[in-house]
Amino acid sequence: MQRSSRWGVIALFIALAGLPAMAWADAAKLPAGYRLAQKLVTQDGSVLQVLEDQRISAQMHKDSWGSGLDEDSFDEPGDLVENPLLGAQVRLLSASGDLVAHDDLGYPLAEIKKAPLKGLPDAVYFLIIDQTAPMGSYSGPATQLLLPAKQKLEPMSYKDADGKVKTLTLAQTGKAAWQVASPVKGGADELLQISSFMDGDGEDDFATRYQTYRFVDGQWQVAVRQKAGYWDTESDFPTRTAFP
Q1: Which of 92, 98, 100 has its CA nearest to residue 40?
Q2: 183: closest CA among 215, 157, 225?
Q3: What would the pLDDT profile of 168-211 be if each residue is shown by its tens digit?
Q4: What is the DSSP code string of 96-145?
Q5: pTM attached to this predicted model
Q6: d(CA 97, CA 79)
Q7: Is 87 helix (H, G, I), strand (E, B) or coil?
Q8: Strand 219-228 with 190-198, pairing
Q9: Strand ranges (DSSP E) for the chain?
Q10: What does each C-alpha distance from 118 to 115, 187, 188, 192, 214 come to in angstroms?
Q11: For residue 169, what are the contacts with CB-CB under 8 A and spacing of at least 6?
Q12: Chain-wide mean pLDDT for the chain?
């Protein structure tokens, strides 16, 4: 083999060997105007990413979480008039770097974390979208459950008492909170959600709803109890016996 041919073969080998890295670089390339706010490697080696507007620094994210992001948070708030904040995105990349799925979240701030749920057949991750408004006590971070190994970025759902399937979303607001609970008799962890809301024409007419989400036969199900009365996050979270 001539020397020129030999070097040609070597160059081709090097180029082919570099393709996986190049594919990862292409897949991981961020859309215009975004920064990589968070990256989390899942148990199967795939990668969950949260992208946020590049004008939102990590410190600004931390300072604004749960309190509302407004123009006062920025050095040049006038820029937001012509260029409104981009909504956060969540992306799923395969272990080899291919873009598997992505979703626009509709709000500027979001986070992901491994869900500390015991007794489930697969690893679950919390996707928390900060829906907090600058004023009011009925908005706040909303948490959905992701099962990337099976459902990609499609949020997990639950079946209500009427048999309807709905997206399972947990609210954390001034009048709503939730916790993970382990059943006394064993089994998969449960999700307890409490929420208080106006239920009548009077200013003091409130009702409080207690919901328990249970994972049964491969599907989340909900049990609901409601009674008159007011609750907010300045009160203690109710005892387990308050929930159905």
Answers
A1: 92
A2: 215
A3: 999 999 999 999 999 988 889 999 999 999 987 777 799 999 99
A4: TS-EEEEEE-SSS-EEEEE----S-SS--EEEEEE---SS-SS--EEEEE
A5: 0.85
A6: 34
A7: coil
A8: unpaired
A9: 34-41, 47-53, 89-93, 99-104, 110-114, 125-130, 141-146, 157-159, 165-167, 169-171, 176-181, 190-198, 206-216, 219-228
A10: 9, 8, 6, 15, 12
A11: 142, 143, 144, 155
A12: 88
- How far is the first Cα of the chain from the last one, in angstroms, to the nearest whole number? 79
Burial 114-125 (b: 16+ CB within 10 A, else e): ebebeebeebbb
Rg (CA), the chain: 23
User: At 9, is the secondary structure helix, strand, or coil?
Assistant: helix
The arrangement of strands across the sheet holding 110-114 comes to 110-114, 125-130, 141-146, 169-171
Distance CA 204, CA 69 (A): 30
The residues, ordered by sequence, that sit 6+ positions from 10 with a Cβ below 8 Å of its Cβ are none
pLDDT in tens, 12-36: 333 444 444 443 444 468 999 999 9
Rounded Cα gap, residues 61 and 49, in angstroms: 15
| C-beta of residue 142 within 8 angstroms of C-beta of residue 129 | yes
Owner of token pair 């590049």: 54
CB 188 within 8 A of CB 233: no
Whether residue 3 is predicted with pLDDT greater than 70 in this model: the reply is no
Average pLDDT (58-84) is 83
